[in-house]
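Lab notebook, page 48
Experiment: co-folding of the full assembly
Goal: obtain a model of how the components sit together before planning crosslinking
Operator: M.T.
Materials (sequences as entered):
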Amino acid sequence: TVNPDIASERQTASFSVEKLTVWLDGGVENTRTRRAVVEAIESDPEFSRENQYFQSQNERYEAAVRKAVHLQKKMHEMGWTENGPEYKYIYRALAGDVAFLLHHIFIRSISMLGSDKQIAKWIPLASRCQLIGSYAQTELGHGTYLQGLETTAVFDITTQEFILNTPKISAMKWWPGDMGRSATHTVAFAQLYIQGKCYGVHPFIVQIRSLRDHSLCPGITAGDIGPKMNFEHVDNGFLALQSVRVPRENMLSKFCEVQPDGTYVRWGSQKINYFTMTSVRISLLSDEVIVPVMKACTIAIRYSVVRRQSELKPGEQEAKILDYQTQQEKLLPQLAAAYAFYFINDYLQELFDNTYKEIQKKNFDMLPELHAFSSGFKAVVTQHCTSAVEICLRACGGHGYSLLSGLPSLYTKILASCIYEGENTILLLQTARFLIKCFMAASAGQPVPPSVTYLAAVKPRRCPAKNKLDFLSPDIYTEAYQHMAGRLISSTAAKLQDLIQSGVKKHDAWNQCTVQLAQAAKAHCHYIAVKNFAKTVEKLQTQAGIQKIMKHLCDLFALHGIFSNAGAFLHDGYLSGAQMDMVTASYLDLLPIIRKDAVPLVDAFDFTDKSLNSALGSYDGHVYQRLYEWAQKSPTNKQMSPAYEKYLKPLLHNKLSKL
Amino acid sequence: TVNPDIASERQTASFSVEKLTVWLDGGVENTRTRRAVVEAIESDPEFSRENQYFQSQNERYEAAVRKAVHLQKKMHEMGWTENGPEYKYIYRALAGDVAFLLHHIFIRSISMLGSDKQIAKWIPLASRCQLIGSYAQTELGHGTYLQGLETTAVFDITTQEFILNTPKISAMKWWPGDMGRSATHTVAFAQLYIQGKCYGVHPFIVQIRSLRDHSLCPGITAGDIGPKMNFEHVDNGFLALQSVRVPRENMLSKFCEVQPDGTYVRWGSQKINYFTMTSVRISLLSDEVIVPVMKACTIAIRYSVVRRQSELKPGEQEAKILDYQTQQEKLLPQLAAAYAFYFINDYLQELFDNTYKEIQKKNFDMLPELHAFSSGFKAVVTQHCTSAVEICLRACGGHGYSLLSGLPSLYTKILASCIYEGENTILLLQTARFLIKCFMAASAGQPVPPSVTYLAAVKPRRCPAKNKLDFLSPDIYTEAYQHMAGRLISSTAAKLQDLIQSGVKKHDAWNQCTVQLAQAAKAHCHYIAVKNFAKTVEKLQTQAGIQKIMKHLCDLFALHGIFSNAGAFLHDGYLSGAQMDMVTASYLDLLPIIRKDAVPLVDAFDFTDKSLNSALGSYDGHVYQRLYEWAQKSPTNKQMSPAYEKYLKPLLHNKLSKL
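Observation: model returned without errors.
Model output:
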């Protein structure tokens, strides 16, 4: 039986949930495959996450390794392959608590950066987990700034080996997943030296543990970096290298090579070494950022139609909290953002695929654009979604704060996405650098990529909207975003030039503009996200029911952005105060409209109860019963704490059992 | 030895750190006392927090009880009393991980709401921990909306008892601290029924566990609610009551009473029942919100002068990350806010003391204002400080995400402050209700409290500032905040009236304005915070060195608020776009000025290393060494995981130990 308060929400859906699900999946075949994978995984007790919220770091790690190993078997059993249609749904079905993600990045690095010979040697072993790999880039003292890495790899011409060293404590590799306790090998990034000359950072395959007994190899110091805010299941590790020798063949050499005589040869951009990171940045968005925010919305919105609190109409039953404007204003923009970023993911995937095709033909021309936008969107999407999950958590009040709600672990995990694979501010500034370059080029009449041609036409203008309904026109708001982004980019470019012309050194001038440059980069990404959403809705013409609600969400996403960044649109008078009041009115009007479909809109994400693992977010809405049931399973209720005998009993007034 | 990168920061301080510390403490006597308390507690190994980041929920709880009990002994030993000058420093010195906070709220409730007879009976027992109390207000189905509580207390005239019941699952008490495993008694809030008539929510003392063997009393179901995002050391509990009888004398009866014949008598406002909550709301700000944000700033700022990353000037040594404008813009406004809210705490304490004095004379007139502003500031300060801690965490990159940085636990703990003791949105709307009332009264020429007299004079105006230096004048920016708050309150009041006049029902109209009402309440509090900071700086005339840097911080706090809420100031043209550019310029100019004193400014908070418990934030700046040392102590490094033998060994290629 389903709680009637949530059941009633489903009876009034303005569209078919199943149709929306299928459309989001990209076709009925995909939906069928996804559900089959989820079913196969969730029905297998080896993959259970039932006790996850009660487990220690050691237990989480052990369970994650168990699952990773069992997954190998399962895939074989089910006939799933890395190239099959099922593959992309497995991680979603596992819901994250599985080991050896870095092992897969190890594989991806070798596949992308390794020579054919290296691929032939390492990939089969790695694919069968006959070795466990890791990806050792970050050091204690260096993260996003890769050029600063301090690990060294000196080519010894006499033995045809590289000698790897950790010259000081800050050079110790720190954070790589799967490295603390599992990995036998790693791709370690180090400064390559040949005959005293430094050739920059390169990747080397290094064995760190014995395959026979898992003991550390000679010259290796490694271990686990200890507790983190989440990722208890991952053994993020440290690694120090003391004169560790690897053969010449262990430097990944698809794009460059050290020849036996010490000659260094390169084919193509050195930047290609970072290409694994670009690819990871894009692929993490879906599983690690967008899926979690979709889950958080599902949990918070379902809970908000079951939770009744306070009187809305005097004398009536307490209202569902989703009927309060403030609750709508917390949750519905996050829901709209979840959809917006779901669509942005497709946009980035396409950009990536196109670039990759060219790279395989050794054409690196699209790399700067891909790098700029994968960086910018990684920053914008992770930042936005992290706030969104926090908002969802807080919108569930006290119960959201219980681990049993599922929200705290979604939050503590997604937060890391703002930091790993490139710190967000640094990434935004890389986007900004590209935008400023394009702006200068466009101003000089030079050609620029299509995504930034608008930079050629930045000028003072005013928004033509006359009433609040005008702001429900995608042309009106997309134009507003475009103008705003263009203004921020051009005014920052102007400030930069002014500073340089007034004698400030280039690097100082850049630094003095970085707050505004980061804003400009965000503005560009926000503009593209709005434009892409509107375009996606436009293409939906054949499915009227879905198009209508998607249009509402697109409007909400756009107007919420204007409402909450009002200053950027008011600053030069593009919008007047009166127009901003229209935006606000249209924005607030949308809330009760979307609220009616809020539950169907999250149902369409099609998460199972097991995948949500939330006492608040289950499909049936039996929130309080589930919280109570789950709480009783807590280890804190298993026995009387020793604290009673040790500390409390001697104090308590025990003359009488009752006072 | 101190890391030279942090040592150099201290040599150039523009003021005496010691003098600032003393001033913040309110005099040298206080500083001395505080340091003595901290020294006494930190030198006692029973209070050590050394392994805290490695402990399970059960271990944290046990340690917290041990500390709470040891504290009783320690206080006796040291001659510290609840009325002595040392008392207020104890909690800060313990740094939070101690049990029985709710026991103290139990004591406070009885002291404030109990009759003299009740106080005489219960307080001595409670003070000696001969019983452990809790405070059972929140239920599974009800939090902030106390009128909706479902627990019942029916007066049985024949036995002169109240019969307490949990009529349904949502009525179960849920969340009360110290209740899951420790408490023997609680103050339970329940709907009072006398002869079928409901008299609303009242507090009752209920025994829940035997004093002899700690078993649950008849009719009691209780336990721990399981894992949370933090507060592992607290046994937040659940409690169901099945026909539990307590004597008539157990209803707290300072302000109302049920007489033997069933007559209900009240002296004074019913709202006084919530007075404990008002008092808790104010007192939690200092220890649970402002101290944590000061700690987070200390950790992040110290780390940011030790961490060097990337080239700022080409060819030079990598720069301290605090030299980047973006890093300054993340951290320094949080530092300014920490100071601003430290001063607001004094403001609220004074308001509370004055009100309490009147209440003791049975004059309840100031209660609405106290309630409105304690609510509003609780919401604004907790929200602002929670974001601030998150910003500090993220500003430390990956290492901030390690529990060993201390930042994750500061964050997960402070986040709860947005929820407990009144959900923030609800609280803001209570503030808004008061402001709207005052605005209506002021518009009608009626008297209003001094803090809101500005509402009588809201009208269109323009800011007189002519250049960026004008924005360093407290009059200019305080005026801007005042105008902005007044405009938001008056325009929301107008919208409310328009809706009602157009036929929308009052409660619907209110709901449709709540997003804007919450904004208006925040704006008022922000204005008061700026004004109070400026006033505090003004009073500092005798200490020129400190006054100068405090003035900078006050300017930064104010301008950061305008910069990041630009829309609110631009909307009606109070500030022009050109003036906003001046604000931005002045704001950004302040960053490098304050950056010079950033380390001394956090040093002045005078936290010991033990109290920070952070591998990143220690006084000596030896960040990397400490991270490495601490990581090695992690239980994940104590032994090879059973996962190797069980899962990995069978898979790995073991023909050769080395590939």
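Interpretation: The CA atoms of residues 229 and 412 of chain A lie 6 Å apart.
Next step: discuss with group before ordering constructs.
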